[in-house]
Automatic annotation (TrEMBL):
<feature type="domain" description="N-acetyltransferase">
    <location>
        <begin position="29"/>
        <end position="190"/>
    </location>
</feature>
<dbReference type="InterPro" id="IPR016181">
    <property type="entry name" value="Acyl_CoA_acyltransferase"/>
</dbReference>
<dbReference type="Pfam" id="PF00583">
    <property type="entry name" value="Acetyltransf_1"/>
</dbReference>
<protein>
    <submittedName>
        <fullName>GNAT family N-acetyltransferase</fullName>
    </submittedName>
</protein>
<dbReference type="InterPro" id="IPR000182">
    <property type="entry name" value="GNAT_dom"/>
</dbReference>
């Protein structure tokens, strides 16, 4: 098996005023919280958004693993819809001491390049900053962070920085090269 070097960048915002919102895209684009934990829907989003950029860490999760994760306090999924069709999502996860991670963020390939991503990231970061308002008992958000890597889309880093995220760590690691899984085997075959 071949290994590849993967660079991972970690970025953060340390105050709500760091957020630099993107313009709202034209058309009927809505962002809605998926309030009912649904392993089927979350796995669909994960595989559809990350299938062409090698998101593989959750593909082997069982139904119960998905359910347990989604039912944790402070885990939220916000979905962007373009004319009623799921276009992408952002997953938030509360961590200790008022830290919220944007664990996953992205668009289904057919919806990229339509200015939905900047809007969804802005909205998701805003919901990270007010997460404690929806979850009694969670600490007020003091920091929002995320990571991206060299396997992600070519515009990912620029989008994060344009939304006010600042780089705080960079790592380069060797990892096995895996085939692009797609939302189902062969979906993104060239």
């Amino acid at each position: 098996m071949t290994n590849i070097a993967v660079t991972t960048w970690s970025l953060e915002q340390t105050a709500p005023t760091d957020l630099l919102p993107a313009a709202t895209p034209e058309g009927d684009v809505r962002i809605v919280r998926s309030e009912v934990p649904s392993p089927e829907f979350s796995r669909f989003l994960y595989a559809s958004v990350g299938g062409d950029i090698r998101w593989t860490d959750r593909l082997g999760w069982t139904y119960d693993q998905w359910r347990e994760h989604l039912e944790r306090p402070g885990v939220e999924t916000w979905v962007a819809y373009d004319r009623g069709t799921p276009a992408g999502y952002v997953e938030l996860e509360a961590q200790d001491d008022g830290v919220v991670e944007i664990v996953y963020f992205g668009l289904v390939p057919a919806f990229r390049g339509r200015r939905i991503g900047g809007h969804l990231l802005s909205y998701g970061a805003g919901r990270a900053w007010d997460l404690a308002d929806r979850w009694p008992g969670l600490a007020t958000t003091k920091r929002v962070w995320l990571h991206t890597c060299s396997k992600d889309g070519e515009h990912a880093m620029d989008n994060y920085q344009r939304r006010g995220f600042r780089l705080f760590d960079t790592k380069v690691e060797e990892e096995p090269e895996v085939a692009t899984p797609g939302p189902w085997p062969g979906a993104y075959a060239a």
